[in-house]
Amino acid sequence: DAGVIQSPRHEVTEMGQEVTLRCKPISGHDYLFWYRQTMMRGLELLIYFNNNVPIDDSGMPEDRFSAKMPNASFSTLKIQPSEPRDSAVYFCASSLGGLTLHFGNGTRLTVT
Amino acid sequence: AQSVTQPDIHITVSEGASLELRCNYSYGATPYLFWYVQSPGQGLQLLLKYFSGDTLVQGIKGFEAEFKRSQSSFNLRKPSVHWSDAAEYFCAVGEPAGNKLTFGGGTRVLVKP
């Protein structure tokens, strides 16, 4: 099993630029989660999907953040425009049937 | 709303010594409980989980955890730590009827030779 695959592993961008983070969940999993990890706030759930449909996006911090899941094997998290306070590690996780999450290795985003 | 508290931010333990990490949760009923481990630069890996039944749960890498309803706790233990156990450990709680996990702030474990 390949596990959850995230790309890129590292992203450095300038303030105001658009950033797109990508995730491929484990094949057959029906839930997909996006988390953000920072020193100050720890792990925060941003949004999750069930069968490609967004279920809860209450954790998305602002309208600058958007997430899509066009099919069962791919999801994106987009930040436009990016700001320095968006610097964090972004994790994608997937699960079969709910709460037992399998995490990717994360994307470390730095916005200068 | 559910919440999780990990009282210890850092713990230093000697290799071969025992380890116990504390986790307290707030939830109205019996929640689903998890422990994850995160090595530097890596994602979170599931160590063990509790849904129901036997309150002593065995996990991977020699870890175990005990659910104590009266204390709202789910502490993680390992009898003898190895240098490779140095990592950050996260406790998490989930609602049986929901699909959202709430994570604690994490405990960073340092292992002395």
Describe the structure.
The complex is a heterodimer of chains A (112) and B (113). Helices cover 0% and strands 55% of the residues of chain A. Chain A is an all-beta fold and 112 residues long. In chain A, a hairpin with a 6-residue loop joins strand 9 (88-95) and strand 10. The termini of chain A are far apart. The model of chain A has no long low-confidence stretch (mean pLDDT 95). Chain B has no helices and twelve strands. The model of chain B has no long low-confidence stretch (mean pLDDT 93).
Shape annotation of chain B: globular
Q: Which regions of chain A contain 5 or more consecutive residues with pLDDT less than 50?
A: none
Overall pLDDT metric of chain B: 93
Determine the N-to-C terminus distance of chain A.
36 Å
| Poorly predicted sequence stretches spanning 5 or more consecutive residues of chain B | none
Helix content of chain B: under 10%
Main sheet specs of chain A: 7 strands, mixed
Strand portion of chain A: over 45%
Defining traits:
heterodimer; A: mainly beta; seven-stranded mixed beta sheet; 0% helix; B: 113 residues; mainly beta; four-stranded antiparallel beta sheet; globular
Short summary of the structure?
The complex is a heterodimer of chains A (112) and B (113). Chain A has 112 residues and is mainly β.
Which secondary structure elements does this structure contain, and how are they paired or packed?
The complex is a heterodimer of chains A (112) and B (113).
Chain A (H helix, E strand, L loop, with lengths): L4 E3 L2 E4 L5 E6 L6 E8 L3 E9 L2 E4 L8 E7 L2 E6 L8 E8 L6 E2 L3 E5 L1
Parallel strand pairs in A: 2-11
Antiparallel strand pairs in A: 1-3, 3-8, 4-5, 4-9, 5-6, 7-8, 9-10, 9-11
Chain B lengths: L2 E3 L4 E5 L4 E3 L2 E3 L5 E7 L5 E7 L5 E3 L5 E5 L4 E6 L8 E8 L6 E3 L3 E6 L1
Parallel strand pairs in B: 2-12
Antiparallel strand pairs in B: 1-4, 3-9, 5-6, 5-10, 7-8, 8-9, 10-11, 10-12
